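Quick sanity check, Cell division protein FtsX:
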Amino acid sequence: MRAQFVLSEIGVGLRRNLTMTFAVIVSVALSLALFGGSLLMSDQVNTMKGYWYDKVNVSVFLCNKSDAESDPNCAKGAVTDDQKNQIKTDLDKMGVVEKVTYESQDQAYKHYKEQFGDSPLASSLTPDQMQESYRIKLKDPQKYQVIATAFDGRDGVQSVQDQKGILDNLFGLLNGMNWAARAVMALMLVVALMLIVNTVRVSAFSRRRETGIMRLVGASGFYIQAPFIMEAAVAGLIGGTVACGFLVVARYFIIDHGLALSEKLNLINFIGWDAVLTKLPLILATSLLMPALAAFFALRKYLKV
């Protein structure tokens, strides 16, 4: 009988404050969708880091005849065969190096034509203007500085370049966007909490006569508070369910179908469904507990029992 009464009171409260309840549902849904999206963005960035950092190469570019005339690093002339052999030998001895690949001028010219064949400069370049290089795969991409220290400024070496620096800029941008999403999410959570507190306050005020009668007949504090707390929890849970729906639909249409980024951007290793599904229970739990706790503390102020 008591459970039936509490449930009936929840229904009454939700109907009485339908507009505010709807506002709570929408704000909770948006804030938790952003919360889940920021978590998935972090997973995506970490997945991309693991995928791309594993493919990072350090390139040791060697001096050619053109560099000898224009580049101060190659003032002693183009690289000699002895210098190339010594550089290769030193690279093979280094413990941080996993694999060394040599790229000749002809190979560099071929790769350039494949990637930038439409560029106006492509027609004016010749193979002898391209640079020979050693492409070095490191056991730990963080150890780039070891290679740079050993070979930068060495005779026959024009420059040492690390692809990780380019990726760091990309991941820095993605992380910045992720933190911006989290800031908006935090703002939306504050708005949702304020709406929950205000809804509970209005609901408690509109039923002050009923709660006064319940006090007179000896009802416990929890028995009086329970309908208000459960109203907030139900509204929050509906919002959390909507947020979960947003994430599932977004993953389906953005990555798998619709935009189909997984097919159009083959170079990106996108997160799988397991990453999405593992976030849904956390979102639902948050959507249930956050409004319930907010209502509980609001009732301590607005409903003295």
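Posting the structure with no commentary besides this: The beta strands are 57-62, 97-103, 133-138, 157-162.
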